[in-house]
Design a protein that fits this description.
The complex is a heterodimer of chains A (about 240) and B (about 280).
Chain A (H helix, E strand, L loop, with lengths): L3 H14 L2 H34 L5 H11 L4 H12 L14 H38 L3 H11 L1 H17 L2 H7 L9 H10 L3 H34 L1
Helix pairs in contact in A: 1-10, 2-5, 2-6, 2-7, 3-5, 4-5, 4-8, 5-7, 5-8, 7-10, 9-10
Chain B lengths: L1 H18 L9 E7 H5 L2 H13 L2 E7 L1 H9 L5 E4 L2 H9 L3 E16 L13 H11 L3 E3 L5 H13 L3 H4 L4 E3 L4 H11 L2 E5 H6 L7 E4 L6 E9 L9 H11 L2 H8 L2 E2 L2 E2 L2 E2 L4
Parallel strand pairs in B: 1-2, 1-3, 5-6, 5-7
Antiparallel strand pairs in B: 3-9, 4-7, 4-8, 4-9, 4-12, 10-11
The chains are: A mainly alpha (about 240), B alpha/beta (about 280).
Chain lengths: ~240, ~280
Amino acid sequence: MDSFGSILTEAFGLILIWDPDLIEIIGLSLRVTLTAVIVACVIGLPLGAAVGAFRFPGRTIVAVVLNALMGLPPVVVGLMVYLMLSASGPLGPLQLLYTPMAMIIAQTILVTPIIAALTKQVVEDLHREYVEQFASLGVGPLDRVGALLWDARYSLLTVALAGFGRAVAEVGAVIIVGGNINHVTRVMTTTIALETSKGNLELALALGVVLLAIALFVNAAVMAVRASAVRAAYA
Amino acid sequence: MERRNFLGWSAALGLALGLSGPAMAQDDFIVVQSTTSTQNSGLFEHILPMFEEQSGIEVRVVAVGTGQAIKNAANGDGDVLLVHAKPSEEKFVADGHGVARFDVMYNDFVIVGPASDPAGVAGTSDVVTALAKIADTEAPFASRGDDSGTHKAELRLWEQTGVDVAAASGNWYRETGSGMGATLNTGTAMGAYVMTDRATWISFGNKGDYTVAVEGDPKMFNQYGVILVSQEKHPNVKAELGQQFVDWIISEEGQAAIASYKIDGQQLFFPNAGD
């Protein structure tokens, strides 16, 4: 086994060479995961805000279920989506199996509970501050959800990043529904799994470092956007 | 206003990410359900470009264990099946999932072990004797344990030794439940003997002090077969394109392509269609 230093060098070498195959794989990783996170936000933010802000029968059960679903094993999600999308499954005619769309669906299912559960927590705390004001101004339910989400937007960016972290790092779901097909559904994590199984441990680890660098870059970019938005808001 | 901008940008980003990019709409492709050994050894990367250039058909390979590949194909999730477990393949055809089975190529299984050779089997060419020795000395043996073609072949050999490996599981007989490469990684780390197909072994990059201990027994013959999935049973199967691939891989040209794949001067697969 090489030293960790030489693995780091190999990782930077991989980026510097700008290998078209690697760039394609990185691009697909980002495309699949960011799309899944955006869809999960579109579903999870309002859902979480509604559960956080409103009192309704069964609310505790919904909250517990959302929290529990944060621990969904990726392999189980992969199998569920496979059985749905398989040619002999109910959604077989859509022919989505072994496409990036199948991977987006699987990751969306993984990430939505995380976004919803964390959003619920953020919004619930904020709602406690706002509840009397809402009542005195007679704000309707939809406007309440909108106002809460808007005012919590900076905390919710971190929520979205938590979802991104989960999705970009998982391999169990995308390898089942995507099939790890070269040039079609091969992403960073499935490439790492493949190289590990080929016994190319150094290359696998170097790819892991590249994946980490991408995650760092995305997080830094989002945080920079957030910081400049905060400055603009209070300038 | 600011809020609308934020939402607008998110939506635009989503559309850009979701709807752009290659490989979403191309229709001239087939899905081949195959095994990790053919993929990990690099064979497909060598021969598929030749077929794709000639036919214009893109081949998408899903590489899993033979057991899983057969199940996926039986669900209709593939146009062609290329695996290595003849009895299961014949059952697949008999059950109506496949049109017909053809021999494609072969290589052989080997048993690899650490240089210290705790069971004293290095150089043996009688695999049943060697396995019995491993069982006698209770030297660690790492098995795939995943219903793959290699696993099935390994179990058939254990049957001939009369050793009940299920009873020893968790003791000296260790089932990793993973692919060939993962099992080799695990086996070499725990000093266990591992049965592997020769192609995966030659191309494996983490050999440590391991060498081939047992080889050359005709019982370790490893035959690969190709089957077109039945369109009658699974209407979504692209029979015409799949048939072109089957015809090509058993043609003289396809067979020559397989024979020409070498790593370090060693040929990994030996074509034998039509023998």
